[in-house]
Amino acid sequence: MAKNDIREFTLNQLEEYLEQKDEKRFRAKQIQEWLWKKSAHSFEQMTNLSLPLRKMLAEDFVINSLKEDLVQESEDGTIKMRFKLFDDNLIEGVLIPSKARVTACVSSQAGCSLDCRFCATGFMKLKRNLFAGEIYDQVVLLTKKSIEAYGQPLANIVFMGMGEPLLNYKNVLAAIDKITSENGLNISAKRITVSTSGIAKLIKKLGDDGVRFELALSLHSANNIKRSKIMPINDSNPIPDLVEALNYFHEKTGNKITFEYILFDGFNDSVQDARELIDLCNKVPAMVNIIEYNTVEGVPYKKSSEKKREAFAGYLEQNGIVVKVRLSRGKDIDAACGQLANK
Ligand code: SF4
Question: Does the pLDDT of residue 228 top 80, yes or no?
Answer without folding.
Answer: yes
